[in-house]
Structures are given as structure tokens and as C-alpha cells.
Amino acid sequence: MESPFKADAVKGKVALITGGGSGIGLEITKQLGKHGASVVIMGRRKHILDSAVSSLRSLGIRAVGFDGDVRKPEDARRVVESTFKQFGRLDILVNAAAGNFLSSAEDLSPNGLRTVMDIDTVGTFTMCHEALKYLKKGAPGRSDSSSGGVILNISATLHYTATWYQLHVSAAKAAIDATTRNLALEWGSEYDIRVNGIAPGLIGDTPGMSKLVPKDINSQAKNLLPLYKAGEKWDIAMAALYLSSDAGKFINGAIVVVDGGFWISQPRPPIPKEAMRQLSRSVDNKARDGPGGVPRSNL
Ligand SMILES: NC(=O)c1ccc[n+]([C@@H]2O[C@H](COP(=O)([O-])OP(=O)(O)OC[C@H]3O[C@@H](n4cnc5c(N)ncnc54)[C@H](OP(=O)(O)O)[C@@H]3O)[C@@H](O)[C@H]2O)c1
């Protein structure tokens, strides 16, 4: 689908995207690049980065890849420094890197929990921490010394309620949302950096989804999803573009849910809508005809 944003929405900006070599992170990278940003992607597997970089360059996007593990502070520092060396500034940091697997709470080892917390939560914070010196107001390379950059942290909606076999991810994503809000408070006040989150719902055609929901989600989703379909990577990328462009200049500390209304959804009630209307009318009539009656509704 064509983007509704102008092609220069983030022109001249430099964006660093962790997990930018695949899935949602790659689509965010692509859309930031198509709207004028120079992009750097980070991940552990070099061949994944190389193939993503060549696909981005084939679209005319200025792109480079630096391999590294967000769990290692020295990798985070090296990639942030390399980004600055390559493009001379840093405006947008997107933390999309994450680990996931299915496990019941009973089978989940403390190490399994720790690994996901390390990648998702500690990794997100480590990247923010290393990027601060280039994102803050007046940082090296920032031509507009009066404003700071933007951080986007990708979480999920799993922890809004509870999710089977996802204790580890729910805990990690809840901590990411808390990190987002606290950084928005502190770094918004001190450095004019806007820090926001995006919470995707079920997004089709992603590595995460094929790992966790092996069958075609759209064919079984009719009764589950209010909009009758899973989302697309594009939907998340458009939210990222909105939040990182000037369109989002007054948005700070928000977690934007992009899930088609999935997390608020409930099974349809057992009583069909027409039967509910008749029941409601008969209850209303009985109450009106009874002793004392009820005041007539003006609605
Ligand atoms: N797919 C969905 O429906 C969905 C729903 C809700 C939230 N999300 C979130 O959206 C984001 C993207 O998900 P996705 O499904 O598109 O999955 P994905 O492509 O598998 O994303 C994970 C990316 O993170 C990188 N990564 C993992 N561990 C890393 C580490 N330690 N250091 C650096 N990079 C690392 C991976 O590359 P390497 O393995 O090469 O390092 C990969 O590129 C994740 O934060 C996920 O939790 C997805």
C-alpha cells in the first residue's frame, strides 16, 4: 500500500534500528528510508543484515548494517559510534530487537526468562543509554541545536492482560513500556528527546508470528480479531513514521497500540443482537407498566 505521508517526512534524519534486518524492524527501516532518512540496521547475523542492506539500497535508500548484540554494551557503543561516523548524526533510535519462544511457566527456566529480559528490556535500555549523547538537544551533528531526537521502543500487548506461554515476553515487554515512560519523563524534560512505544498486535508475515503461530492466522482469526484480519508490517511502520516525524512532535511517553482492537476484544455474547433488542424492549415495557412506572426516556 502507498504511504499517505510526504516523501520528505523524515528527510535528512539518521535512524538506527535494532532488529532492522528482518520482519517489522526491516519494514520500519524501509519506510523511514523511503521518506528521506539514512538508515543503519543492527542485528547479530551478518548475512541477514547484508541481504537487507542490498534490498534497501536497491530502493535508493542510504543504508548500512553493523552487526552486534544489544545485550553487549561494547557492541551497542560500537554501533552507535559507527552510525555517527558514517552519517554524522543520529536522530531516531528504534529498538525492535527481541527474542521469543513458546514456553509454559512450568517449563520456563530462570535462564530462559533472563535471556528474553536481557535482549528485550536490558538491550533496549542499553541502546538508549549509548545513543543519549547523540540524541540530546545540542548533541554533536544536530543542526537544530534546540531540539533532541526520537526513541521508539517496540513492545506488545501481551502483558495488558495475560498470555498463555508468554510469561517471559510479557514481563520483558511490560518492563519496556515502563522504560519508555520513564525515559520520556526524564529525557523529555532534560534533553528534549521524545520517547514513545509501539505495541503491535498479531502482525502477519513476520518471523515472530510464523515462529509462534505456525498456521495461517487469517483463516482462523475471524472470531478472534475485531477487524477480521491480522495486521501488516506496514501498519507498524506507518505508526513509526508518524511518531518519528514532526507529525508526532507533541507525543511523548505514549505507547501506541496497533492491533486492530485485538487486546480489548471479547468473545461475542451468547445472545444474538436481535434477541438482545427484544429482551431489552420487553424489560423496558414491563418496568414502565409496573407500579410507579419509570420516567419516559428522551433518548
Ligand atoms: N510479529 C508480531 O506479530 C509481533 C507482535 C508483537 C510485537 N512484536 C515485536 O516486534 C518486533 C519485531 O518482531 P518480528 O516478529 O518482526 O521478529 P524478528 O524479525 O524475528 O525480529 C527480531 C530481530 O531482532 C534481532 N535480534 C534478536 N536478538 C538480538 C540481539 N541480541 N541483538 C541484536 N539484534 C537481535 C534479530 O536478528 P538476529 O537474530 O540476526 O540478531 C531480528 O532481526 C519485536 O520486538 C517483537 O517482539 C512482534
From TrEMBL:
PANTHER family: PEROXISOMAL 2,4-DIENOYL-COA REDUCTASE, PEROXISOMAL 2,4-DIENOYL-COA REDUCTASE [(3E)-ENOYL-COA-PRODUCING]
Enzyme class: oxidoreductase
Residues covered by region (Disordered): 275-299
GO MF terms, alphabetically ordered: 2,4-dienoyl-CoA reductase (NADPH) activity
EC number(s) given by UniProt: 1.3.1.124
Name listed for the protein in its UniProt record: 2,4-dienoyl-CoA reductase [(3E)-enoyl-CoA-producing]
InterPro entries from the UniProt entry: DECR2-like (IPR045017), KR_dom (IPR057326), NAD(P)-bd_dom_sf (IPR036291), SDR_fam (IPR002347)
Gene3D superfamilies in UniProt: NAD(P)-binding Rossmann-like Domain
Catalytic activity of the protein: a (2E,4E)-dienoyl-CoA + NADPH + H(+) = a 4,5-saturated-(3E)-enoyl-CoA + NADP(+); a (2E,4Z)-dienoyl-CoA + NADPH + H(+) = a 4,5-saturated-(3E)-enoyl-CoA + NADP(+)
Organism the protein comes from: Rhamnella rubrinervis
SUPFAM superfamilies: NAD(P)-binding Rossmann-fold domains (SSF51735)
Domain Ketoreductase: 13-181
Keywords for this protein: NADP, Oxidoreductase
Keyword Zinc: no
UniProt KW Translocase keyword: no
GO biological process assignments: fatty acid catabolic process
GO CC terms, sorted: peroxisome
UniProt-listed SMART domains: PKS_KR
